[in-house]
Design a protein that fits this description.
The structure is a homodimer of 411-residue chains. The first copy, chain A, has 411 residues and is mainly alpha-helical. Helix content of chain A is 84%, strand content 0%. In chain A, helix 9 packs parallel to helix 13.
Chain lengths: 411, 411
């Protein structure tokens, strides 16, 4: 029993830590509670209650279902809900009218057939990518409303009244939710995307630096800061898996009104491209890390020979990435990027040169060493590192520069 | 106007192609329509209608909301819905009782406070990873039911009756949906996961072969089959992005009853590990492709020297992967895997040897060639390929072997 209590306590501690790490999660919970309480208050106020009838329940439901973390997602769901409900309502009324004209006998047959056909079509349409991206929730609501109306239409005669009231409650619910999400500590999907990309850039830069330090400083200090470096250099893992969240943010960001430094038609798609470029860079760092952790390491002599040039390349790379992050953050064009790019190209050239001179340097070494063969073989894994990095880094940098200039031109 | 019609037509053609490519999507749509029609029929039958009262609408709603593509997802949603509804209902009744005991004055205050607190807590708890994975939908339904009951509790006196009817309708809806999804062309999440992993393995093997052909055969035939090979070798891209779907399948597969060759407690988590190993292999192929597309290529002489050994390594790798795919497909231990692994290790050793002999071979070449320096420099990018591949391939293969033995031991 004690073990159970300890587990529960651990769970609560974890939850508390989650909230403290990101207080906006607490705020989000409180916002949801507030929106619901406000809607319930509507219900307790006699005059309003009499106005919308017993359907106030629908307002509660709308609030619960529509309330989302980011403003974009909330607006997306609200608009989808309102439009899908009205469309389905009208269609269902039409079908109901046709059915009622065709006599008592065929009425249920026609209704059932309509439900079957439209539900099948709408469910299938949710598989189509373009619809899935923009109207997935709307399709669901469409099916829901249509089948509910056409089923209840058989019983309730005052369909128009019901539809009227339901629309009113849904609009009350959605507008309340939108007001709450937009004006009380709003979390904009666009801003999140923006911050995510910048954070990813910083992570890439850090893990590039970290893996360089790890690779070349491996033998000097193996105890203390090594683990920290390891953690730092693993930041790229987050970048690998961030595709889905980037896409959903970009998807929701399109629904958001202008806010802060972001105008309408902010180039959200460019962010996706930058994200993809970052991810391809993260793949390279993954490969780099494979070299770091591999069993056959290059001898120190080779490392020493290449150390300076490699470090220059990686430091210019990471400072370019950091500079680009700053560029995106302030959405202004920075002249430092061009300068740094030139510097990086010089560094790459230098690395090429030192690679060319490596065989000569090695030859001197190998004459003094006994195991020249194995040293030569292992040396290749050292050479793997710079080349693996140089090629994508160069393409990556040029890609980023192109994109940053595009971002600048649009903002 | 004609352009509009053409676009609509194109859209429908695309949708139709989607369905033809995967007929199960059509079937799914039809199943959804059928389930809804069946529920509507309940509504049209007088005696049943009188039994559950005007709440039959709730059955319709349940069907629409709970119906999902895979059996696992449907069961997950159904169970979550039923339990969350009952829990929230009981809690709401308790709160309602406390509120009604405390007098007319405090009743709305207490109700509102309870809604606020519980809704906030439940919304926040959706951020906690373990809850999000298993009970995300349940939390939503909990908030929904609780706030609806406590709000309507103020008006309706016969709460117990309402709760009873609502539970009945929800259970009718969920059981109907579960029957339809399970017995009419069921799509099991577990099977999907199984197939996805196998497909990914084949894709990895194909793209390994494809990129080898592309790298070593680049200059011989540049026109016809090259593009096809390029497409083939890009199969690994799908593997890179399949993490999210693997996780959701594994998540849903846990809810599924025993079916086909899969018993209860099938090792779904092992699939995730295999998937992760495949993904790390895909990262390496990404790096390989970077080498293929890079500007500085190795001279033909170097390529020729390494061609045989490289091709042996990659072909053993890909045949191991195919063999493993077969192993997983039949869930039996195949002795061929061990044999192939040994063969691969031999091939890797051979590649090491030919790498060691490369400098000598090169030296002969360089004496006859004029541009020995640049040839030596470019040679490194050729060396990049085999080493980049050998290290992860070896670790990958050993990982896979370990996992496949685990899979075998559990099944």
């Amino acid at each position: 029993f004690m073990a159970f209590i300890i587990r529960i306590r651990g769970f609560f501690l974890k939850a508390w830590k989650l909230g403290v790490d990101d207080p906006r999660k607490f705020v989000h919970g409180i916002k949801a509670g507030m929106a619901l309480t406000l809607v319930s208050l509507f219900y307790y106020m006699r005059p309003l209650y009499d106005g919308v009838g017993g359907n106030a329940m629908w307002a509660v439901m709308t609030v619960v279902v529509v309330f989302e973390n980011t403003v974009g997602a909330t607006i997306y769901k609200s608009l989808n809900r309102v439009f899908a409900t009205s469309l389905a309502g009208f269609l269902a009324l039409g079908v109901h009218w046709v059915a009622s004209q065709s006599g008592r006998r065929f009425e249920p047959v026609i209704s059932c057939l309509a439900v079957f056909l439209l539900a099948s079509a709408a469910t299938f349409s949710r598989f189509i990518p373009t619809i899935k991206a923009k109207f997935d929730y709307g399709c669901l609501i469409f099916i829901l409303t249509f089948s509910m109306v056409s089923v209840s239409g058989y019983r309730v005669e005052q369909l128009f009244d019901v539809a009227n009231q339901r629309m009113a409650t849904i609009i009350i619910g959605t507008s309340l939710v939108i007001i709450v999400t937009m004006f009380i500590c709003p979390i904009w999907a666009g801003q999140e995307l923006h911050a995510l990309i910048i954070r990813n850039m910083d992570k890439i830069a850090n893990s590039l630096d970290g893996s360089m330090d790890l690779y070349f400083g491996q033998k000097e200090e193996e105890t203390g800061p090594d683990k920290q470096l390891g953690n730092k250099s693993l930041g790229y893992r987050c970048v690998l898996g961030s595709k889905a969240s980037e896409e959903s943010f970009a998807n929701f960001a399109r629904w958001e009104p202008a806010h802060g430094q972001f105008s309408f038609k902010h180039p959200w798609k460019q962010y996706l491209k930058v994200g993809a470029a970052l991810r391809s860079c993260a793949y390279c760092i993954e490969a780099l890390n494979g070299c770091i952790n591999s069993e056959n390491q290059a001898p120190d002599a080779v490392k020493k020979h290449l150390k300076e040039a490699c470090e220059r390349v990686s430091s210019t790379c990471s400072s370019i990435t950091r500079e680009l992050a700053k560029t995106i953050q302030t959405t202004t064009r920075s002249p430092t990027v061009d300068f740094l790019t030139k510097e990086m190209n010089v560094a790459v050239q230098e690395l090429h040169n030192s690679l060319k001179s490596l065989p000569d340097a090695l030859k001197e070494e190998s004459e003094s060493e006994s195991e020249s063969e194995s040293a030569d073989c292992d040396a290749k894994s050292a050479r793997v590192v710079p080349l693996m990095e140089v090629i994508p880094a160069a393409t990556f940098a040029s890609l980023l520069i192109e994109i940053s200039s595009r971002v600048d031109s649009v903002v």
